[in-house]
Amino acid sequence: MVYRYSESPLICPEDIRPFDDRFEVIGVFNPGVTECEGKILLLMRVAVRPKQREGYLSVPVLHDGKIEIMTLDKADYDCSDSRFAVAQDGSRLLTSMSYFVVALSEDGITFRVDSERCILPSEDLEAYGIEDPRITYLDGQYYITYSAVSEYGICAALKRTRDFKMYERMGVILHPDNKDVAIFPEKIGGKYYMLHRPSTSEFGKPEIWIAESDNLTQWGNHRHVAGVRSQSWDGVRIGSSGVPIRVPEGWLVVYHGADADDTYCLGAFLLDAEEPWRVIGRTDEPIMRPELPCEREGFFSNVVFACGGIVAGDTLRIYYGATDKFICGGEVKIKDIMEVMKR
Amino acid sequence: MVYRYSESPLICPEDIRPFDDRFEVIGVFNPGVTECEGKILLLMRVAVRPKQREGYLSVPVLHDGKIEIMTLDKADYDCSDSRFAVAQDGSRLLTSMSYFVVALSEDGITFRVDSERCILPSEDLEAYGIEDPRITYLDGQYYITYSAVSEYGICAALKRTRDFKMYERMGVILHPDNKDVAIFPEKIGGKYYMLHRPSTSEFGKPEIWIAESDNLTQWGNHRHVAGVRSQSWDGVRIGSSGVPIRVPEGWLVVYHGADADDTYCLGAFLLDAEEPWRVIGRTDEPIMRPELPCEREGFFSNVVFACGGIVAGDTLRIYYGATDKFICGGEVKIKDIMEVMKR
To answer: CB-CB: which of B151, B173, B215 is closest to A204?
Structure first.
């Protein structure tokens, strides 16, 4: 249903210059998407790892607000999952670290990466990196929600900016573990709303919740919105894949779902316009599955994962991460999604 | 260090009449504590389970806001952990359900249980019960934080009351999983604060965090406050065991800690008066360990677990749950805690 731009992948790791030459870029993916100064702006998640030396394992660490390299004896760690170095006591270090870089486009196909224009992790709760930004334009400013990852867990944090040059820190808005936070682009009934995804739970599953706020920094009245569907493509975990889009029928939410094989697809649901905690429609099947070679093989196989899109008339342009390595693009008619939405 | 009242346990399961005769009371424990109408008031967690029939397993379920009994074939479930009935697909039902009952005392030793004066679970996010209330008297009302447990996870919820007869619902204030929420009894620097304990995390541990609010229902600026201490009595999980107490040196927090054997003890730490996210002292050793027979053997062995206390002059009176079955009481001089606090 989603038409892929034939130029995909649009942005590859080799298009990014790392913030420090001792690192190499291993992935550029899961961008926040908005329009800024008449252009399409991507705030891209860039994953870097230290260049490695034979026999050693070098991992990134945040020290006094700066990203440093820690070199370990490779024999002391289990590296069978390439994302982690696991010590004998079970404690884990991440082998890579993510930060954000801006890219701009006039045509939506060709992007100019501005490797200098970046947001680096800078505080204790970001010590393992910052991930998966989502951007909401609201009241004249851009609000960026993202995952702040550290030994203390995965929190949801918020920054705002007018220009993607200067950023104002607005703190950690949700305690660990939480991911996939997307703020609605307007108040509803006098309140701000956001979708979020508590990630770990003794009884619960990684599913989509909603919270409300008067001021965007403090959130309450958490309610469960949408669940996984056992045995389905979205049977194990789901999360919002971008900012809800106001359509005549309500709020259209593109979401990602993963199954037991960790294949990530995109689907959509529809929330009531006035009571956005009520799901009034949902697609049975994905609107997008991993199909292109770059969506099937990369850093983490069989993943299409979006953090945002742009509405242009009757069309939704989606810029999405493929296999945690590339950024691809495509577009879909909103009415085509609405037609397969089961009410 | 804590002097136990010789009358302990002060309240036992047989002192409670269940809200419905088809149930039996299996535990009364972990009470919220406050003063009301010149008396000491306990808001007690009461755990009930359906009376059982041979060969069947009856479990409590919430249906249309009412507690009903579901009867299952015992052969289909694994009941080796008495708290759960585990189906073959791994899904779990709780064998008991908790709600809250008021007890009042004039002398702090003899309590009159008012089994009719109770709070029952009533909504979807409370379908497995409500647990471990903590009470903060603030701005002329009593604020009750508690765990709301359901298939969606363990949330922190808030109610307020003037009289422990009529309650105002203030919603779920923290998404799953979170427990051990305690609101500070006054504003600090113009903001409300609460301690909380995210319970599950991919990287983090069950440790104590703080959040701030302008209105008590919406919370933000989450920060990590105090961690576990590996190999120690508080090496696996910790949580606030009551409302912070203003002392000349700062905020005194009694907390519970568990080790790898699931032995629960009480300790204390001290927070800065003006910056309550900063720990400025902590006891090395517990101020209380399970010692009495009723603290060692009951429903869950070797547990002392408090949700609150009463300050009377230079003394802290603690009413605490023992082995998830009884309520006991004791008292300690605040200066005795402060003397063993490592600064």
So the answer is: B151
Chain A residues in contact with chain B using a Cβ-Cβ cutoff of 8 Å:
92, 124-125, 128, 149-155, 171-178, 196, 198-204, 207, 209, 211-215, 217-224
CB contact under 8 Å between B201 and A154, yes or no, is yes
Q: Select from A183, A214, A218, A228 the residue whose CB has the most chain B CBs within 10 Å, as the one to mutate to test that interface.
A: A218
Q: Which long-range contacts (CB under 8 A, 24 or more apart) does B193-199 make?
A: B193/B276, B194/B145, B194/B219, B195/B225, B195/B240, B195/B244, B195/B253, B196/A175, B196/B156, B196/B240, B197/B237, B197/B238, B197/B239, B197/B240, B198/A153, B198/A175, B198/A176, B198/A177, B199/A202, B199/B154, B199/B237
Distance CA B236, CA B244 (A): 22
Domain boundaries, chain B: 3-342
Cβ within 8 Å, pair A172-B213: no
**What is the 8-class DSSP label of residue B2?**
P
A149 contacts on B by Cβ (under 8 Å): 203
Contacts of A101 by beta carbon, 8 Å cutoff, 6+ apart: A16, A28, A43, A44, A46, A113, A114, A115, A117, A118
Amino acid, single-letter form, for residue B115 = S
Contact B316, B309 (CB under 8 A): yes
Q: Which of B62, B143, B191, B222 to mutate to test the interface with A (most CBs of A within 10 A)?
A: B222
DSSP SS3 for A286? coil
Query: How does DSSP classify residue B90?
Result: S
**Contact between A217 and B217 using a beta-carbon 8 Å cutoff:** no
Partner-chain contact B212 A218, CB within 8 Å = yes
Q: What is the pLDDT along chain B (343 residues), one digit of tens a residue?
A: 999 999 999 999 999 999 999 999 999 999 999 999 999 999 999 999 999 998 899 999 898 889 999 999 988 999 888 888 998 888 888 899 999 999 999 999 999 999 999 999 999 999 999 999 999 999 999 999 999 999 999 999 999 999 999 999 999 999 999 999 999 999 999 999 999 999 999 989 999 999 999 999 999 999 999 999 999 999 999 999 999 999 999 999 999 999 999 999 999 999 999 999 999 999 999 999 999 999 999 999 999 999 999 999 999 999 999 999 999 999 999 999 999 998 8
Alpha carbon B314 to its chain's center: 24
Chosen for mutation from A169, A202, A221, A222 (greatest number of chain B CBs closer than 10 Å) is: A222
> Phi-psi region for residue A302, left (φ > 0), alpha (ψ -120 to 50) or beta?
left
3-state secondary structure of B282: strand
Amino acid at B56: Y
CA gap B208, A45 in Å, rounded: 30
Pairing of strands B237-240, A92-94: unpaired
B231's CB contacts (< 8 A; 6+ apart) are: none
Q: Which residue reads 């032995």 in tokens? A: B263
Instruction: Report DSSP state, residue A325.
Output: T
Instruction: Provide CB contacts within 8 A for A187, sequence distance 6+.
Output: none
Half-sphere exposure of B35 (CA within 13 A, CB side): 9
- CB contact under 8 Å between B222 and A175, yes or no, is yes
Please give the CATH number for the structural domain made up of A3-342: 2.115.10.20
Out of A172, A202, A209, name the one closest to residue B177 (CB). A202
Q: Name the residue facing B220 among A151, A212, A218 (closest C-beta).
A: A218
User: What does B238-258 look like in DSSP terms, one character per residue?
Assistant: EEE-S--EEETTEEEEEEEEE
Name every chain A residue with its beta carbon within 8 A of the beta carbon of B155.
Answer: 222
- CA-CA-CA-CA torsion sign (A274, A146, B211, B285): positive
